[in-house]
Amino acid sequence: MRSFRQLAAVALCLAVTGCGASVEKTSTAAASAKPVTITNCGKKVTFDHVPERVVTNDVGITELMFALGLEDRMAGFAMPDDKGDLTDVPWKDGYQKVKWLSKDQLTKENVLDARADLVFAGWNYGFREDSGFTPDALAKLGVPSYILTESCRNGRTETSRGIMPPLEALYTDLTTLGQLFGVEQRAAALIASFKKEIAAVQAPAKRPKVFLYDSGQDSPFTSGKYAAPDQIISAAGGENVTHDVDDSWTTVGWETVVARNPDVIVICDYGDVSAEQKRKFLLSYAPLRNVAAVRNKRIFVLDYVDLVESPRNPSAIARLNAYLKTVA
Predict the structure, then answer these.
(1) Would you tell me the crossing angle of helices 313-327 and 184-199 to the nearest 10 degrees?
(2) Which tens digits make up the pLDDT trace of 283-302?
(3) Other CB atoms within 10 Å distance of the CB of residue 96
(4) What is the C-alpha separation between 18 and 127, in angstroms, rounded?
């Protein structure tokens, strides 16, 4: 498993730039001064200049910028302590180059102190109504926003998210950011390398049913069809048992899990409750005792950053695929 991830990281690095080689320049000073129009969450947005002091919220969003080689366009990032395993992350040096503004979430104060000219976050990935940290509120301060495509609200309810399949959302953001920052070639190379890595995955003969467990004991927080785990599971050769839920990250009832009887449970590893604690809960929770995944102790762990929209998604697909082949 580790050797595969190491090879994938090296292949990605070579496919995009050649490690240590000079990369596509973000733009000249003249180009930076020109207006740029992009489409974000279905709306056209015009920037009067290419942003030079971007602040990001959360690890997946931050690594989208790093993967595009845009550290020099960043003024800082906010995220918790746990960034996941950086061992084979080709763009991990970005963490040493860009200021860590907060080990929580972005605030208006963070943004203003950093003299940010763009906030890159998402609904429930920094943007939130309860605290007033929203694109509209930032616009009143003169700071534009870019919303993570996985988190785009879709109009089915006031808060439901997801307007396209998760991997398409990843490719959309890479393409759009490439346009905004003038790194279209690098974005295209990343997308091509990701698609090649995913295409190389060979599905198991039988597609195991998979449930994604994020958190929660009274009711589990999981992934509907528009969050990254849905396509990570399907591309790895499994079937997400909550694929029919028209939302991204959302809550379902345990009775749904029991009725759909997953063969495998994937744990999202993050936060104060460790993956091992989550595993012990699942194996000891009486209503799940007859569920195939629990009965056979088929529980697999992926990092949080593997399971949100991020450039680590293709590697997560390959690793989950290797596990599912042991099940099928």
Answers:
(1) 0
(2) 999 999 999 999 999 999 99
(3) 7
(4) 35
